[in-house]
Design brief:
Layout (H helix, E strand, L loop, with lengths): L2 H9 L23 H9 L1 E3 L3 E3 L8 E6 L5 E6 L4 E5 L9 E3 L1 E5 L11 E6 L6 E6 L3 E6 L4 E7 L6 E4 L9 E4 L4 E6 L4 E7 L5 E6 L6 E6 L4 E5 L8 E3 L16 E6 L5 E6 L3 E6 L4 E2 L5 E2 L14 E3 L7 E6 L2 E5 L7 E5 L5 E7 L4 E6 L4 E6 H4 L7 H12 L5
Parallel strand pairs: 2-6
Antiparallel strand pairs: 1-31, 3-4, 4-5, 5-7, 8-9, 9-10, 10-11, 12-13, 13-14, 14-15, 16-17, 17-18, 18-19, 20-21, 21-22, 22-23, 22-24, 25-26, 26-27, 27-28, 29-30, 30-31
């Protein structure tokens, strides 16, 4: 199947078998769940004792993660170039749930990457496709059903990052930080690079599309700048986000690399992380920094240029909750509401990435210890289940609405 046919199938609403989720997949998180309860679940995240991810023998460390639109499949890109898919809702009769690897492609094979997968992402609207970017200078778009690339885009330099626009349009673009000072936009319909955005004076480290406007792209570079682009015009950037010095103070000139970007799910805020060990939250409507939201983020001193793959949610009552790799731990903080924070401890080596599964208030993390860990709300760990956590939680909800009440 070629790329054009695959894209048309996605637009017509066609979904692969892997896109079907379990009946109770949206049980926990819905509009009926009180935000206070959701916040309590977030506050009680802990390393799961009953849920784990299958480990492949002699498998390399996972470097990047992504959860699909239906919140069922976990996409994993590894340091050795291999790619795997984990079923997070596989049926089981055991009290301890091990999520199995249901598909994989090894490194140095006909279809696999030769070196580290630096970024991976599901097609934003179902699990029928996904994209991977690698240090082997290749970006590949995959058909999930056959686990083969339907299109491969070669580059001149090692890729740093990519992001597929999550806004529903007839032609969602892929932005690529291609190891240069330029950003490459890929049009999958034409199967070629649509245009290049040129303004950074150093390597572009990371890119991120707005979740609400298909024309707005943000980039962070080794020159320390965060640039906002309107891709309808490649002549210049729309705006450069700058930090204002306190009244009466002078800004110190320091060399800061931007190595992390993330929009909130509603697009109201942009979060940036740099090697100055500061996370900043920007108001996207005013394009201004929210001063009270800046707080120190410890980063691994041995890897100052490493991309920080963090996640954010606006569930709960605290406005924003961020999950940031912090050496061997994961920092959980609420930048808009309080200074309260916590560290999730369980890995034995630097954490590479973490991704939030919003339907269940679960967090998944990967590290150089070759482990992918599951973090669950404490209440879920107290529920012993004959089949799965989702089945018992469904029974609990049904009990709340029983006729005996």
């Amino acid at each position: 199947m070629n790329l054009s046919t695959l894209l048309r199938g996605r637009e017509l609403g066609g979904k692969s078998q892997k896109a079907r989720s379990s009946p109770g997949h949206s049980l926990i998180y819905s509009q009926k769940v009180d935000r206070t309860v959701t916040q309590q679940r977030l506050d009680s995240l802990q390393l799961s004792r009953i849920r784990s991810i299958e480990r492949r023998r002699n498998g390399e460390s996972v470097f990047c993660l992504d959860v699909d639109h239906d919140q069922r499949y976990l996409l994993c890109g590894s340091c050795d170039g291999s790619v795997s898919i984990v079923d997070l809702d596989a049926p089981t009769t055991s009290k301890e749930v091990t999520c199995p690897v249901v598909a994989s492609v090894a490194r140095n094979t006909r279809y696999g990457h030769d070196y580290m997968v630096v970024s991976c992402q599901w097609y934003p609207f179902d699990s029928g496709m996904f994209v991977t970017a690698s240090s082997d200078k290749m970006l590949k778009v995959w058909d999930t059903n056959v686990m083969r690339p339907v299109e491969t885009f070669p580059f001149a330099e090692r890729l740093c990052h990519q992001h597929w626009s999550p806004v529903p349009t007839t032609n969602p673009l892929i932005a690529v930080a291609a190891g240069t000072s330029n950003i490459v936009l890929i049009d999958l319909r034409s199967g070629s690079a649509l245009q290049q955005l040129k303004w950074h004076t150093a390597t572009v480290n990371t890119v991120q599309w707005s979740p609400t406007d298909s024309n707005i792209l943000v980039s962070g570079g080794a020159d320390g700048r965060v640039l906002v682009w309107d891709v309808r015009s490649a002549k210049s950037r729309l705006k450069a986000l700058t930090t204002k010095a306190p009244s009466g103070a002078r800004m110190k000139k320091t060399h800061v690399l931007i190595n992390g970007l993330r929009f909130s799910q509603d697009g109201l805020f942009l979060l940036t992380i740099g090697t100055d060990q500061i996370m900043r939250v920007w108001d996207t409507a005013k394009m201004r920094e929210k001063r009270k939201a800046a707080f120190a983020v410890p980063t691994a001193s041995n890897f100052p240029r490493k991309l920080i793959s963090f996640d954010v949610t606006n569930q709960g009552t605290d406005g924003l909750t961020v999950f940031v790799p912090c050496e061997d731990d994961i920092l959980v903080a609420r930048p808009l509401s309080s200074a309260r924070r916590q560290l999730l401890q369980g890995h034995y080596n630097p954490v590479n990435a973490c991704v939030y599964r919003s339907n269940y208030q679960q967090l998944y993390s990967c590290a150089n210890d070759r482990m992918v860990l599951v973090w669950c709300p404490e209440v879920d760990e107290r529920v012993e289940t004959p089949t799965s956590n989702q089945a018992v939680l469904r029974d609990l909800v049904e009990d709340q609405w029983s006729d005996d009440d």
